[in-house]
Amino acid sequence: MQKEIIVLLGGPGTGKSTLINELVARGFCCYPEISRQVTMKAQQQGIEQLFLEQPLLFSEMLLEGRIEQYKNALEEPDNVVFIDRGIPDVVAYMDYIGDDYPESFIKACEDYKYSKTFILPPWEEIYQSDSERYENFDQAVKIQEHLVETYKKYGYELIEVPKDTVENRILYILDKI
């Protein structure tokens, strides 16, 4: 079987981390979203919201971490690896805020390709803000639009995961792989 590196993507609060946690509980190899780690590290250094205060630095750190996740996924003994957010997310967020970024961001999107991409739609009923998620639901919808546009630009076919129970969403994903 060929190595499958599968990305779960979607705007903030669409249930990605919940699904990743459930996949881990079922014994799948999964890599978590790393933006919270980057944000918390910056907060420990006195920067409340690194993405808002220094978006390019934040994005460079994310890009580096996501490339590392991709490379590590290639080395996993498991044939299927799930990742919470992918490399193109970095470009989508920079486009969302309207900031410029270096050519290396585009090259990374072209060089590191995922096997499958599952997109979770905005879902107001499950959306929650917290200390690392500063966006409101309307902003989350706009981010979703940028994610769709960016992934399609890099040639991905997005498989939309229906709004449903965690169990049914997992079964849907597993059925598609």
UniProtKB/TrEMBL annotation:
Residues 6-169 form the NadR/Ttd14 AAA domain. One of its GO terms (molecular function) is ATP binding. The keyword Nucleotide-binding applies. Pfam families: AAA_28. The keyword Phosphoprotein does not apply. Keywords: ATP-binding, Nucleotide-binding. InterPro entries: NadR/Ttd14_AAA_dom, P-loop_NTPase. It comes from the Bacteria. This is ATP-binding protein. It comes from Flavobacterium tagetis.
